[in-house]
Automatic annotation (TrEMBL), chains A, B:
It holds the Pfam family LacI. Residues 4-58 form the HTH lacI-type domain. It comes from Saccharibacillus endophyticus. The keyword Lipid biosynthesis does not apply. This is HTH-type transcriptional regulator DegA. CDD domains: HTH_LacI, PBP1_LacI_sugar_binding-like.
Amino acid sequence: MRPVTVYDIAREANVSVATVSRVLNNTAPVKKETRERIVALMHKYQFQPNALARSLTRKETGMIGFILPDITNPFFPEVLSGFDYEARKLGYTYFLCDTISTNEENERLYDRQYERESQYLSLLMEKQVDGIVMIGGRVDLAKPDPELTRELEEVAKRVPVLLLNGSLPKTKLNRVSADQKFGAELAVQHLIDLGHRDIAVIGGYSKMTNTQQRLSGFRSAMKDAGLAVRKEWILTEGFSVPKGQEFAAKLLSAKRRPTAIFCMNDLLAIGALKAAHRAGIRVPEELSIVGYDDIPQATYSIPELTTVSLMSQEIGRQAARTLDKMIAGKKVPLFQSIMPELVVRETTAPLSGTNFQ
Amino acid sequence: MRPVTVYDIAREANVSVATVSRVLNNTAPVKKETRERIVALMHKYQFQPNALARSLTRKETGMIGFILPDITNPFFPEVLSGFDYEARKLGYTYFLCDTISTNEENERLYDRQYERESQYLSLLMEKQVDGIVMIGGRVDLAKPDPELTRELEEVAKRVPVLLLNGSLPKTKLNRVSADQKFGAELAVQHLIDLGHRDIAVIGGYSKMTNTQQRLSGFRSAMKDAGLAVRKEWILTEGFSVPKGQEFAAKLLSAKRRPTAIFCMNDLLAIGALKAAHRAGIRVPEELSIVGYDDIPQATYSIPELTTVSLMSQEIGRQAARTLDKMIAGKKVPLFQSIMPELVVRETTAPLSGTNFQ
DNA sequence: TCTATATGTGAAACGGGTTTCATTATGGCT
DNA sequence: AGCCATAATGAAACCCGTTTCACATATAGA
């Protein structure tokens, strides 16, 4: 059962395909009577224009590639859903490109991930996407392999590319990112306002831009308050719940322990919560914890997480809007910053014994 | 900067486009020397074949449409990641079609959702996808609007359609689903084995197939054990954390309260956990809770959830494999069942005072 | 009445590949 | 030497829309 084409319609309507195309796209006036005849036939046969053929001539597909590192990490569905919302309104459809790559022990293989990104980049170009948005992976690297960056720049010459929540230093690639440093300052300042002086920070990967920026926010907030940062209270290399639990357990079992922990994401904070629970330390009475990202799960825990909202949905929305403009050839700012917001819930409280509020 | 085409390559290599196509696809022997000349040019110009043009003639795109109700619900990323894993290996790329539709109060609008599904169905056909997989939405309806079903059947005539985790009664549409009844039996039987006799069940939507099936599993397990099911201990219409909290709070504040709650998904279970905590009831000592789905978050809670794993990743993988076969025109079973597994963690314990084990 | 402009339409080229069919060159075998 | 299978290649058609260009007709303004 061959699908019906404009030719079929044209033949039966006794017109040329050009006319059919015209009613299809409203691109030139068609006599009312002719139009009706054609429309009727289209309905009769449930005609559906072949998007491939259309895109081939139009040189636009309405398709976008969305490259992310791991859909299973609840942060990404959040930004994706914001992106989806806006992209749909703008008439785009998108390929989801997950670059996660794990070995048997379910550990992340970074090199494979970058390789996947490259494969997807090239695949998406073949598919003639109108634009590409990329989050995580190489985009997060503070010192990216020049080769990886070069490739991205090469792609960006041919099709609009938008980087989310990262920063490739020294490149001219468009970005929309949360202000990570500001977000960290927000979190740490909150802790300081509550009277905490012994603040630890856990998680992140030292090679990632966002980690470095958050760390820098942490340091600057501490410095402004005249507080010392203790090197042994900065535990990095990890972003998962188990890692958070591990880090926090280490912190909490030491002779001297912090009264507050700033976690590089909510997953870590949830892990920290578990560690505190295991250690019999009450949150927030004896230990304040603040997370980062404000994923939905932040409200699932007991107590609910105080955290920094990166406005993940908003990042996604902004991404869609910006990419659309880039595709349309409009000018957009090279860099757009989204301001995080502090969400105070139940895991933070004034330092016990004091009453700063 | 017009992208280079086979014509450009052909001209410079002094061959016809047919020959270029042949080296591109290895579809007929080409003299070694000629081949090398062409390959060299391809590299020189970083030639990337236009997938649209290719698909137009080949009548296959390597594209799949994946329709789901809400990527923000952690169950779906699990399924999706399994699907992604396998689909990528098989050389497919897929459009993510999220049909969620909410009003200002962030409430789900079902009718709009079905409408979205229809839009996507038609859009995907225009895009010439090789196949469609669909999960949630109308697929979950026990008594679907005949019109919705008819549409699906119409689509399935033109392109392979695979339904996940649902059942449209009386249709000949291919499906792969977890055995929901069996899963529920597993959960309830576990509770019964622990000595519980007063078992409540919360969540789900009474109009959904999976809810009905799980309920039927619950009932059959209760009946086999000679236990009565109390109508006021079956609270439905909801799948979220707040709903779980609400349902559980109601249950726990009654004069007579259950000693165990079977939740229709993990989100509800997390909500129940919160309600118990608020009510000062210890889990699992005073109340056992079992969830359903085994989303990653099931291990984030304190205590960790005992739950029924639907093998979500496995469902996704199976979907990809099956759809691939359907696309290839191979025969596949109309219905494939995936067996859930019970995952015992920390929210269930023997009924206090007894020691059944 | 005669341009000027808008309306209505078709033929043909185009987009960038693949595939069929025909043709020539080549090698192996009797 | 003669024949056949295979290698190697090109011309042209095809996939299914869109777009350009040309042309005919109609309407309006001068």
